[in-house]
Amino acid sequence: MKKTENFFEKTYEVARLIPFGKVTSYGAIATYLGTARSARMVGWAMNKAHDLEDVPAHRVVNRKGILTGKHHFDGTNLMQQLLENEGVVVVENQIQNFDKIFWNPMDEL
DNA sequence: GGATTGACGCTCC
DNA sequence: TGGAGCGCCAATC
């Protein structure tokens, strides 16, 4: 738990640092954390992060820009609503212009 | 303690 | 070019 605590902490930290109207991918965070091959851990961390209200998990999507985790939110399209609220265009659970609004933690951090 | 799952990603066919 | 399968690390059952 101690060792993973850092992993969680970093994951949450990065998630919180995501600028308004920007999004990132699990893989990007995983890479930043040094666990690039374990993007699943980031997703899993987000699951726990969902328990925390401070982590904008809705800004984190998979490498394709698809809102794979939206099903885990309260509403069916709550995640999409949140993103659209930030100016992010989401169609069919997929973020449009993903390349443009993609926020790379390594580039900023 | 062992097996399965998971909000992913990459490689192989 | 498209689809399917395997691998990762940690947690839960």
UniProtKB/TrEMBL annotation:
GO MF entries: catalytic activity
Q: Which residues form the Methylated-DNA-[protein]-cysteine S-methyltransferase DNA binding domain?
A: 6-88
What the entry lists under SUPFAM superfamilies is as follows: Methylated DNA-protein cysteine methyltransferase, C-terminal domain (SSF46767)
Which InterPro entries has this protein been placed in? ATL_DNA_repair, MethylDNA_cys_MeTrfase_DNA-bd, MethylDNA_cys_MeTrfase_DNAb, WH-like_DNA-bd_sf
Which keywords does this Swiss-Prot/TrEMBL entry list? DNA damage
Listed GO biological process terms: DNA repair
Q: Which domain of life is it from?
A: Bacteria
* PANTHER family the UniProt entry points to: 6-O-METHYLGUANINE DNA METHYLTRANSFERASE, ALKYLTRANSFERASE-LIKE PROTEIN 1
What is the protein name stated in its UniProt record?
Answer: MGMT family protein
